[in-house]
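for the writeup, i need someone to sanity check this before i put it in the appendix. the sequnce is what the collaborator sent (i think, or maybe the updated version? ugh). structure was predicted straight from it, no edits. if anything looks off just tell me and ill rerun, i have time this weekend
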Amino acid sequence: MKYEVVVRTHCLEENTYTAYGIRCAEALIEDISLCRQAVEGLAKLLNFHQVSPVHFHDVIEDFLAE
């Protein structure tokens, strides 16, 4: 399983922002953070520990709770 960082630019009213998410073959979670380094680090950990996609949403939820 390979987790990859995804980048999206969003427009909200007259402002734009770039948000980062993570995709794996079976799921996509966007807007995890505005910090690219944080999301890249999380994706690296997911890949290193070979986290099952079954636990992907739980890991992201725990990450956001910190």
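The two ends are 25 Å apart (CA to CA). The longest helix spans residues 36-48.
thx in advance!!
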